[in-house]
Write a structure and sequence with these properties.
- By secondary structure, the chain is α/β, with parallel strands linked by helices.
- Helix content is about 30%, strand content about 25%.
- The strands form 4 sheets. The protein has a 6-stranded mixed beta sheet with strand order 2-1-3-6-14-15. It has a 4-stranded antiparallel beta sheet with strand order 8-11-7-12.
- A hairpin with a 2-residue loop joins strand 14 and strand 15.
- The longest helix is centred in the first third of the chain and has 15 residues.
- The protein is globular, with a radius of gyration of 17 Å.
- The protein starts with a helix and ends in a 7-residue tail after the last strand.
- Bound molecules: ribulose-5-phosphate.
- The site of ribulose-5-phosphate (5RP) has 18 residues, from helix 2 and helix 4.
């Protein structure tokens, strides 16, 4: 089974959690796109939801496919968010932001009663950090912020390259007009400590560690789809 089929499988199981009338946060990325496509089929058949997109990219796809959208300002509390992830550990801690939407994704997920992660099995890790950690920063003071991040990392015995994400010849700009630093620290044994320390740096707008945000992960693999809740009580 190819990767796209796995994403579709995870997305279709997540869709079973969506009830009529729900206020629904809609994630960003190739897995979330599959969710949007399946959701759009249901909407076309008469199913009603209020969608809140986590990025301009997702908003574009929703508009194209007829999924009704509302700004978060109008629907500030949501029932459920369904989104992908770059990494998921067995405590349901995540790394997100590979698609550059981490700030809106975190705001929308945290405004939701429940967040369900959809992913294929390749995203499961024992310890976060195989995937570079995206850190969204204000362009002002970029060099100072990078040094502050290096110091924080070093205090936690983490090291590695911190690369400014580029979009061809210019820095990649998020929907919020910020830049992204991708930090290749390798294994992050204490994700909570790193999260708190990064949050304390003024130039850091947000980072891709989602801790205590996801309530469930729907993981598709060649042997089927499994659900992880809280402490990953169903091993995949
Ligand atoms: C975007 C994200 C995505 O959810 C994450 O990058 C996973 O994407 P994909 O489903 O394409 O693997 O965090 O900011």
């Amino acid at each position: 089974m190819d990767a796209r089929q796995l994403k579709i499988q995870a997305a279709s199981v997540a869709l079973e959690h969506v009830r009529p009338g729900m206020r629904l946060g809609i994630g960003t990325g190739s897995t979330a796109d599959e969710f949007v496509r399946l959701l759009a089929e249901k909407v076309e058949a008469g199913f009603e939801i209020k969608g809140v997109p986590t990025s301009e990219r997702t908003a574009g796809l929703c508009v194209e496919l007829g999924v009704p959208l509302f700004p978060l300002e109008e629907v500030p509390e949501l029932d459920l968010t369904v989104d992908g992830a770059d990494e998921v550990d067995r405590e349901l801690r995540l790394i997100k932001g590979g698609g550059g939407a981490l700030l809106r994704e975190k705001i929308v997920a945290c405004a939701s009663e429940k967040m369900i992660v959809i992913a294929d099995e390749s995203k499961i890790v024992d310890t976060l950090g195989r995937y570079p950690l995206p850190i969204e920063v204000n362009p002002f003071g970029l060099a100072s912020t990078r040094i502050a991040i290096e110091k924080v990392a070093s205090s936690l015995d983490l090291s590695g390259t911190i690369d400014l994400r580029m979009d061809r010849a210019v820095p990649y700009e998020t929907d919020g007009g910020h830049f992204i630093l991708d930090a290749s620290f390798g294994r992050i044994p204490d994700a909570e400590a790193l999260s708190s320390a990064l949050n304390a740096i003024p130039g850091v707008v947000e980072h891709g560690l989602f801790i205590g945000v996801a309530s469930e992960a729907i993981i598709a693999g060649p042997t089927g789809v499994k659900t992880m809740k809280n402490r990953g009580n169903q091993e995949i």
